[in-house]
């Protein structure tokens, strides 16, 4: 038995992997990582793979960034974690001040959690309680979009559109109003109509600005997003932007909301917040919403919500340094340049392939939708497996191959990704 096979056997004996059928786990040739460096991960046998999925969309600057390593070490000397429930921590204050300068939210306050689903869950509870605190009755419904994915906790599942085997949990989900997904050109017209008709019972609208990631990189018209924001303002409905996937430069601007020039009432952040180093998310809350929770000590207006590891100091120190590096290294310029290169290469080599239905790209969020001639061929899974065999780590969403390299990806690496992807598609669909 090879070193890899031994590790897979040990893994399967004790670990339960998310979104994975463990009965088939060992048969699907999983990569078992020993260490990572730069834009590559290295498995237990020493094989190197270009991390073209940014470790499920979280790694922005690559692995083992010296400046981020140093920030982590420096904070360890100060302390790993102290509770944010009723007390503060200087590095969390500094991070919040830095975020307040750049997020597209007016007079923001930040409440922290550990992952994107929890950031969404916080936003939903805050939006609901905001209207209760204001004495407004009946504002207890949310509007979400078809194709939406907001996480796996119960509230996030409820505003999500289902799929990925989650229909089993439908009895636990609360009902929402639903506009069409981004693949429907009229989705924002419909959403604006729903806002106008049902404003009196809407607590908030929740949307992934620009890109519905888990829907297969479905793209939104910025003008449609702007119209939705105007409808929310006109009818006094809160707007929640879920930028867990799109935030921190992924689409070419620091936040995707900027492309539509919208300023949400609540902004959900995660994934790239700490450059993939530590689990941390945040919900940014606009001033008027935050103010509705102010009242006497221990009053009913208090938000009775918080997590043990909320505002983890180690994560905050890395997130703060990450924000500084994004600016100092002009990372957004690289995202835009590499996105143009990736688009040109995909248009030239991948889009014309008979096996490809459509290519969608926004910044460095890309999806190549395959067109299998029959059900059950698992082209997406097989193409990604063929790419991994060639040393490029890819992962599908059904029959959509996701291309999501680090924001600091090089021109040479973009060429390699497209070359390998083209070869993998040709092999599987021959």
Short précis:
This protein is of the alpha/beta class and 430 residues long. It has helices at 3-14, 54-57, 66-76, 90-100, 116-133, 154-159, 187-198, 222-234, 287-291, 313-328, 331-350, 379-389, 411-429; strands at 33-37, 40-43, 48-51, 109-113, 141-145, 177-179, 202-207, 211-212, 218-219, 238-242, 266-269, 281-285, 356-362, 365-370, 392-393, 395-397, 400-403.
Q: Taking strands numbered 1, 2, ... along the chain, how are they ordered across the largest sheet?
A: 4-12-11-10-7-5-6
Q: Which structural class best describes the helix and strand composition? A: alpha/beta
Question: What name is given to the CATH topology of the largest domain?
Answer: Aspartate Aminotransferase, domain 2
Mean pLDDT: 97
CATH homologous superfamily assignment of the largest domain: Type I PLP-dependent aspartate aminotransferase-like (Major domain)
CATH classification, class level of the largest domain: Alpha Beta
How many helices does DSSP assign? 13
CATH architecture of the largest domain: 3-Layer(aba) Sandwich
User: How would the global form be characterised?
Assistant: globular
Radius of gyration: 22 Å
Low-confidence stretches: none
The count of strands amounts to 17
The biggest beta sheet reads: 7 strands, mixed
Which percent range fits the helix content?
25-40%
Distance between the termini: 32 Å
Strand proportion, as a percent range, falls in 15-25%
Secondary-structure element pattern, one letter each: HEEEHHHEHEHEHEEEHEEEHHHEEHEEEH
What number of structural domains do the residues give?
2
């Amino acid at each position: 038995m090879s070193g890899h096979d031994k590790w897979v056997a040990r893994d399967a004996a004790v670990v339960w992997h998310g979104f994975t059928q463990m009965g088939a786990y060992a048969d699907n040739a999983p990569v078992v990582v020993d260490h990572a460096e730069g834009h590559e991960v290295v498995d237990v046998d020493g094989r190197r793979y270009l991390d073209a999925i940014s470790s499920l969309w979280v790694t922005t600057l690559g692995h083992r960034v010296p400046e981020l390593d140093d920030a982590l070490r420096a904070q360890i000397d100060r302390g790993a974690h102290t509770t944010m429930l009723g007390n503060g921590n200087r590095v969390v204050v500094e991070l919040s001040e830095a975020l307040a300068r750049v997020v597209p939210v007016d007079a923001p306050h930040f409440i922290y959690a550990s992952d994107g689903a929890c950031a969404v869950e916080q936003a939903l509870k805050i939006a609901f309680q905001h209207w209760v605190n204001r004495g407004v009755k009946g504002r207890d419904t949310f509007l979400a979009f078809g194709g939406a994915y907001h996480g796996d906790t119960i509230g996030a599942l409820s505003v999500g559109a289902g799929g990925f085997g989650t229909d089993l949990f439908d009895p636990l989900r609360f009902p929402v109003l639903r506009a069409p997904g981004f693949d429907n050109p009229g989705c924002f017209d419909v959403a604006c109509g729903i806002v106008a008709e049902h404003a009196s019972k809407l607590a908030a609208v929740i949307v992934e600005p620009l890109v519905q990631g888990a829907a297969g990189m479905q793209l939104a018209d910025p003008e449609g997003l702007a119209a939705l924001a105007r409808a929310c303002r006109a009818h006094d409905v809160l707007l929640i932007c879920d930028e867990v996937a799109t935030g921190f430069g992924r689409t070419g601007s620091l936040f995707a909301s900027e492309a539509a020039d919208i300023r949400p009432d609540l902004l959900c952040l995660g994934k790239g917040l700490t450059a993939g180093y530590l689990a941390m998310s945040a919900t940014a809350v606009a001033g008027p919403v935050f103010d509705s929770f102010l009242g006497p000590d221990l009053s009913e207006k208090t938000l009775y919500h918080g997590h043990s590891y909320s505002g983890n100091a180690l994560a905050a120190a890395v997130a703060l340094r990450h924000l500084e590096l994004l600016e100092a290294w002009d990372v957004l310029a690289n995202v835009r340049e590499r996105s143009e290169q990736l688009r040109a290469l995909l248009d030239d080599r991948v889009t014309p392939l008979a096996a490809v239905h459509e290519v969608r790209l926004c910044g460095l969020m890309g999806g190549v939708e395959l067109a299998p001639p029959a059900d059950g061929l698992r082209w997406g899974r097989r193409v990604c497996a063929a790419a991994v065999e060639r040393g490029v780590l890819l992962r599908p969403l059904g029959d959509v191959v996701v291309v999501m390299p680090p924001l600091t990806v090089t021109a040479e690496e973009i060429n390699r990704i497209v070359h390998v992807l083209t070869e993998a598609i040709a092999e599987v669909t021959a």
